[in-house]
Amino acid sequence: MVGGGFGGLSAARALARAGGSVTLIDRNNFHLFQPLSYQVATGALSPGEIAVPLRRVLAPFPRARVLLAEVSGFDLHERLVHCRPMAPAAEPFSEPYDVLVVAGGSSYSYFGHEHWRPYALEVKSLQSALRVRSRLLAAFEAAEIAREHAEQRRLLTFAVIGAGPTGVEMAGQIAELAHEVLPGELRRARSRQADVVLVESAARVLPAFPPPLSLHAERSLQALGVRLATQHTVVEIARGLLRLRQRDGTEQTLEAETIIWAAGVSASPLAGALAAAAGGELDRSGRLAVEADLTLPGHPEVFAIGDMVRLRSTSGGTATPLPGLAPVAMQEGRYVAALIAARSSGRGQPATFRYRDKGTLATIGRARAVAQLGRLRLWGFPAWAIWLTVHIFYLIGFENRLIVLTRWAHSFFTRGRGARLITEEAGGPREGPVARPPHDSADRR
Ligand SMILES: Cc1cc2nc3c(=O)[nH]c(=O)nc-3n(C[C@H](O)[C@H](O)[C@H](O)COP(=O)(O)OP(=O)(O)OC[C@H]3O[C@@H](n4cnc5c(N)ncnc54)[C@H](O)[C@@H]3O)c2cc1C
Question: In CA terms, which of 63, 141, 291, 436 is 20 to 30 Å from 133?
Answer without folding.
Answer: 436
